[in-house]
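Structure (tokenized):
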């Protein structure tokens, strides 16, 4: 059953330290306590928040995150009755490691894993990480959430897939650097508007390997309006909103019902050359 009461989400925007698990988990531990004290239902963490882009050691990080980091975050979720989501380098079935978003519920149970579908070549993800193979929607008391990671924001078909299957929220943990701040903001708003969903994009700050990360984490409503946003400082950004507004907007302005699925299915068949005579 979907909850209808206003919900509170917290986005922890911080300077993720490359290769320093203790520093990153210490920062997150404090954020978890503060998020719980603020009444947050969900805490959302940046992309690769335990290791950052220490990809040369990706295999080792897969083992560390599975053995140490994930259990630590699950324990904090359980102790603080808080859902926690962020991405880690984790082992994949069939071998290799991926940039994998894990959603942990308030009981400390892992309820979903999504591995980033689109690898970001300028930061060498294609060299060290395997891509995911399928989208993932996870159920929550406030409605379904479509999972994505950073660079995925540039691929609208993923979010349309989620929206047409009932997702009300999209989560995008990121490490998005200058000079593409305008892209980050515009794409998050576009994904919200075109799919009539709430987009929660949490970006890191700081500098690493010649990149400067600008933060500007945000929650965007289905009208493309920014409900709350950060600048370039370290911050636990908290935001309250009524999730029932999503269904109201979709009912009153039924864009998703007007998708020409017949056309796009036919075009797909034409592309593969398998259309019936």
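Design, position by position:
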């Amino acid at each position: 059953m979907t909850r209808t009461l206003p919900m509170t989400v917290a986005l922890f925007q911080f300077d993720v330290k490359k290769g320093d698990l203790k520093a990153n988990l210490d920062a997150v531990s404090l954020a978890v306590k503060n998020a719980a004290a603020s009444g947050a239902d969900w805490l959302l963490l940046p992309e690769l928040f335990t290791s950052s882009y220490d990809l040369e050691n990706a295999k080792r990080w897969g083992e560390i995150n599975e053995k140490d980091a994930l259990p630590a975050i699950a324990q904090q979720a359980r102790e603080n009755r808080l859902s926690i989501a962020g991405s880690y380098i984790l082992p994949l079935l069939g071998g290799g490691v991926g940039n994998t978003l894990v959603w942990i519920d308030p009981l400390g149970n892992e309820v979903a894993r999504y591995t980033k579908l689109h690898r970001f070549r300028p930061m060498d993800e294609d060299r060290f990480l395997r891509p995911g193979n399928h989208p993932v929607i996870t159920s929550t008391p406030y409605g379904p959430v479509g999972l994505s990671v950073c660079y995925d924001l540039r691929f609208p078909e993923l979010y349309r897939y989620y929206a047409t299957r009932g997702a009300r929220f999209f989560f995008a943990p990121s490490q998005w650097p200058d000079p593409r701040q305008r892209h980050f903001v515009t794409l998050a708003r576009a994904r919200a508007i075109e799919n009539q969903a709430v987009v929660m994009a949490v970006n890191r700050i700081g500098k690493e390997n010649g990149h400067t990360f600008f933060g500007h984490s945000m929650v965007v409503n289905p009208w493309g309006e920014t409900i709350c946003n950060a600048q370039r400082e370290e911050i636990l950004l908290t935001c309250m909103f009524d999730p029932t507004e999503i269904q109201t907007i979709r009912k009153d302005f039924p864009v998703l019902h007007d998708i020409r699925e017949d056309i796009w299915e036919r075009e797909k068949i034409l592309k593969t050359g398998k259309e019936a005579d």
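Reviewer-requested clarification: The chain has seven helices and 14 strands. The chain has one domain: 7-272.
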